[in-house]
Amino acid sequence: MKFVIAIVIFSIIILFHELGHFLLAKKNGIRVNEFSLGLGPTIFGITKGETKYSIKLLPFGGACMMEGEDADSDDERSFQKKSVWARISVVAAGPVFNFIMAFIFALILILCVGYDKPVVYDVMEGYPAEEAGMEAGDTIISMNGKRMHFYREVSLYSYFHPGKSIDLVYERDGKRYETTLNPLYQEEEGRYLIGFYGSGVREKGNFLESLKYSVFELKYWINTTIDSLRMLVSGRVSANEVSGPVGIVKTIGDTYDESKTEGYYMVFLNMLNIAILLSANLGVMNLLPLPALDGGRLIFLIIEAIRRKRIDPDKEGMVHFVGLVLLMLLMVFVMVNDIRKL
To answer: How far apart are CA 161 and CA 157, in angstroms?
Structure first.
């Protein structure tokens, strides 16, 4: 059952990504030859109008194959015959749709269980927070100028900036206070602590508040993905800690096993939370300025828009081909690493 759930989550997220490309292609009058879910040989396909809709053998990935996207075409409705701004909108639509999906899922989650406000539940004795005069019930407003909307953001900021001095703004009884906290290294836990923690309790608001906090939830996962990439590039996280499809399926399976003891409603909530993370993550990753990804294609299109002259298609195609090969090698490495960790 857990593997079926993992495949369903992957399929929905990828299908929605490709739907973004598909809808914007149709809106701009571009001919779509095939819209598919999965990779490899076709196991089912039906043609409606000019487009073939198909399901492939391997349940990961998907494609919106447009006329003239990667090859020359004389068709007036081909991708390359459209204006540069039309092509930019089509390429950008995939990641944007992932962010839209993450927002919708976040709204459902927050309507169900609310959001974790950045409120201090207790202060630890002998740590900087106590020395600064902080108390239980204080609401964290910002850390080093970064606005905090969830307690998770407070914890994550400390994780991504270990040992860094924090200029903290907090609120008590409607009045704001400012202080500077210098984290202390805790030998037993092997990490820096500033000396307070939250309760983990979530608070529900009205629909408008839920909409607002859904935007913050999306922003939280986008920032988490970007900060994680920074840690990877800076070497603070090794490549062996990166997970691919196999590792994600394992995480989904483990979460399912832990959640089902509390009922299927809890399974639904946890799967929804994972889907928010994966959808936001896919949106960010696809916008990276790397060849073969949507971000790489956008770079070429933006350069074209600035120069008002298209880059040599053969040279662009070669860059994307090399990027695709490197991306496949990276996927193989990550998959082997995932299997090794199992």
So the answer is: 6
- For residue range 181-212, what is the model confidence (pLDDT) as tens digits? 999 998 887 889 999 989 878 889 899 999 99
Does residue 239 register a pLDDT over 90? no
* CB within 8 Å of 116: residues ≥ 6 apart: 150, 151, 152, 198, 200, 201, 202, 203
Cα 340 to Cα 236: distance, rounded to the nearest angstrom: 21
Angle of helix 245-259 relative to helix 313-341, nearest 10 degrees, comes to: 40
Q: Quick check: 110 and 214 in contact, CB under 8 A?
A: yes
- Residues 321-339 as b or e (16 or more Cβ within 10 Å = b): eebeeebeeeeeebeebbe
DSSP for 208-268 reads HHHHHHHHHHHHHHHHHHHHHHHHHHHTSS-GGG---HHHHHHHHHHHHHHHGGG-HHHHH
Q: Helices 207-234 and 264-286 sit at what angle, rounded to 10 degrees?
A: 60
Rounded-to-integer distance, Cα 151 and Cα 202, Å: 10
Distance between CA atoms of 205 and 114, rounded to whole angstroms? Answer: 7
Distance CA 195, CA 318 (A): 54
Given the residues 18, 67, 69, 316, the one annotated as active site = 18
In single-letter form, the type of residue at position 244 comes to: G
Active site annotation includes 209: no
Q: In order of start, what are the domains of the chain with their CATH numbers?
A: 122-197 (2.30.42.10)
Rg of the chain in Å (alpha carbons):
23
d(CA 107, CA 97): 15
114 vs 41: CA distance, rounded Å: 43
Beta bridge partners of 168: 143, 179
Bridge partners for 167 per DSSP: 180
Cα–Cα distance, 208 to 223 (Å, whole number): 23
**103 falls in which pLDDT band (50, 70, 90)?**
very high
φ and ψ at residue 235, rounded to 5 degrees: 90, 5
Residue 180 has phi, psi (to 5 degrees) of: -120, 125
